[in-house]
Design brief:
The chain has an 8-stranded parallel sheet. Strands 1-10-13 form a 3-stranded antiparallel sheet, with helices on one face. A two-stranded antiparallel sheet has the order 11-12. The protein has 12 helices and 13 strands. Helix 6 links the parallel strand 7 and strand 8. The chain is of the alpha/beta class. The protein is globular, with a radius of gyration of 19 Å.
């Protein structure tokens, strides 16, 4: 039987969306309560495409960090067809920017400025490989003839496999993986290829998206897949393999934008992500594997020191609020109005 109170090294979130401006007053505190550091995605409008952009964005985030928190945002740049080579070089001298994010144009929220053809950015990727700067992928193709449930698999086959052969020393993170194909790919690669796994892709599969009707708050990109893929993700997360680590991909959108005629993609998990990871690992009888997945493997991959701080959770039931205020509207969180088993007690 597992203890009812557990202390672990304070986790990091290696894939987080905070948005900007008034949204930060909600999103920053929700992540800061549970995570010591977070790698912040750059898909704002306009996107974060230079180191100066990233530093300015980081200052806006820091201004919203609660006074009792030491939360540290780590930054990324948005790769475009027109990114200048000098910006890649500047990352190496920046203490706050850790990597570059590759969005295929049109793949997800605010990705219209993404890469239209990977060959257009080969010179930038070559510089990343030379300087040992990680490249983070939203791993989906956007060709309309490719089924949405197959877009991650096709991306691996047509984009990622050739890229790893062309740049064998490049550090790559395949973000928010959703398929057995991705799990197998990561396992077969060298140690410089890793992946993040979200809590919602561990807990849900595509049946949840259509249970009793269309459920827009389960709609995310990459989209939820079949249970056979979910089972592969579960096995990977519980394996203790350092190639797989925590990245929530918490992505806030107002209720009106989610529940519309063309609802946007994203699951807002920050208010309960860590507690749900705890519950997930406990339910699978692998709580001893959680600390590596949540607190060690990501820091090791990004070549930064593991946190020296700790966080304590205990078995103490609580109920997730039905909604939060976000940009003067409502945002519906993961597990809204549902009971959770673990609660943060010391941070």
């Amino acid at each position: 039987m597992h203890p009812n109170k557990i202390t672990i090294t304070k986790p990091d979130d290696w894939h987080l969306h905070l948005r900007d401006k008034s949204a930060l007053s909600t999103t920053v505190s929700h992540s800061a309560r549970a995570f010591g550091r977070a790698l912040v995605m750059p898909n704002l409008s306009p996107p974060i495409i230079t180191v100066d952009d990233a530093v300015s964005y980081r200052e806006r985030i820091i201004a919203e960090v609660p006074k009792n928190s030491n939360f540290q945002p780590l930054m990324t740049l948005y790769l475009t067809d027109n990114t200048e080579l000098k910006e890649i070089s500047k990352i190496k001298d920046s203490e706050h920017v850790l990597g570059v994010k590759y969005y295929p144009a049109g793949a997800t929220t605010n990705s219209s400025n993404g890469v239209t053809n990977i060959e257009k950015v080969y010179h930038l990727i070559e510089e990343m490989s030379h300087l040992d700067i990680p490249l983070l992928f939203h791993g989906e193709v956007t060709d309309h003839h490719v089924d949405i449930f197959d877009r991650e698999q096709v991306f691996i086959e047509t984009i990622l496999n050739p890229l790893t052969e062309r740049y064998p020393d490049l550090r790559i993170v395949l973000e928010h993986i959703t398929t057995k194909n991705a799990v197998d790919f990561i396992k077969d690669q060298s140690k410089n290829i890793a992946a993040t796994i979200t809590i919602h892709h561990l807990l849900y599969n595509r049946n949840n998206l259509f249970l009793g009707g269309l459920r827009p708050h389960f709609y995310c990109l990459p989209i939820l897949k079949r249970d056979i893929h979910q089972k592969a993700l579960i096995k990977a997360a519980l394996s203790g393999n350092p190639k797989f680590f925590l990245g929530t991909d918490s992505a806030p959108h107002t209720q009106s934008k989610k529940e519309s005629s063309c609802g946007c993609a994203g699951v807002y998990s920050a208010p309960a992500a860590l507690e749900l990871y705890f519950e997930f690992f406990e339910n699978n009888h692998e709580l001893d594997k959680l600390e590596g997945f949540a607190s060690f493997f990501g820091a090791d991959f990004y070549h930064i020191a593991r946190s020296k701080k700790t966080i304590t959770l205990e078995k103490n039931k609580w109920r997730m609020p039905k909604e939060f205020i976000f940009e003067d509207e409502s945002i519906i969180p993961i597990h809204a109005d549902q009971e959770l088993q673990w609660k943060i007690t010391e941070n």
